[in-house]
Amino acid sequence: MNLTRRKFFVVSSALISSMLIKSNAQAVEGRYATIIDISKCDGCTDESIPRCVLACREQNKSRFPEPKKPIQPYWPRKIYEDWSDKRQKIDTLTPYNWIFVQKLNVEGKDIFIPRRCMHCDNPPCVRGCPFGALTKRAYGNSVINEKICFGGAKCRDICPWQIPQRQAGVGIYLKLLPKFAGGGVMYKCDLCKDRIEKGQEPACVLACRDRLKENAVFVFDERKKIYELAYKKKKEEGLFIYGDRQNGGTSTLYISDISFDLIDRALNERNERFKMPVDVKNKIQTTFNPIGKVVITSGFLSIAGAIVAAVVSKNKKTDGDENAKD
Ligand code: SF4
Ligand code: SF4
Ligand code: SF4
Predict the structure, then answer these.
(1) Which residues approach ligand 3 with their CB closer than 6 A?
(2) Could you read off the pLDDT of 3-15 as tens digits, one per residue?
(3) What separation in angstroms does the CA of 51 have from each of 4, 47, 171?
(4) What pTM, to 2 d.p., does this model score?
């Protein structure tokens, strides 16, 4: 695909508009939510790969990155993140594995925790992306637009659970400033956006229920029903809930017969990459500063302007031919 001047201006305008719009964004309680009942998950240990993980990979494989090699370093650093030779890795989140099952021993008991994006009500990843590559949808899901993501990983830095994962050697930055900007594209669970928009359940939810029937780990439904069900279980069965308060609220409620203080302590003792801190403040809500936001936005507008200028200048020579194809 050649990036013509016209296409570039369309993309730039979208990016700049989204930067401005995001300044006023508020928390959104989406239509759907999910319960993940840890006490019911056995990790699919009798199968070669957990059903939820397999279903997610099947569902999303057409969107997995195919990097252009050799991959350029992420200037000024000499490193880049390349998972393309580790596509089969299923014990962590990667650009090729958007859900994984974390195995843990808590006070002598083995537990299994399916981990993926929490789909926060006021997602810092969405609010913090300087290029507006993420959106919070009415269904409750937060979604990365892979076509305009520069892979700067701000979303991961600002996510309390460091969920989005980067693959270098792909994405729009290759067309713009391949040696000086961006590090690829970020990938994560989008709550099976194409399925839920058609009224279907997410693939992982369906796969787990196929195996465990009425004892399935996931319950996916209208948000109000999910919250009511979780609080009912808390009251009647003494279960613990995670995700209703963390980060200002989310569309994913873990429930467990083991407290999340104990779970997070065990995760910390094992120095796990993905933890479950109980006290999670929303960085956007707690650090929001209208003056700072203006400065930040202006800074990125300047950068965007510089990029526009650089690309237009670079494309000037070839625009005649390219425009003829538009
Ligand atoms: S959530 Fe369901 S499908 Fe996934 S590992 Fe647990 S039991 Fe298996
Ligand atoms: S869990 Fe992280 S990646 Fe997912 S919506 Fe929340 S902030 Fe964004
Ligand atoms: S909701 Fe869809 S994208 Fe998210 S983990 Fe489940 S299968 Fe994967």
Answers:
(1) 55-56, 59-60, 98-99, 116, 189-192, 202-204
(2) 455 555 445 544 5
(3) 43, 8, 30
(4) 0.84
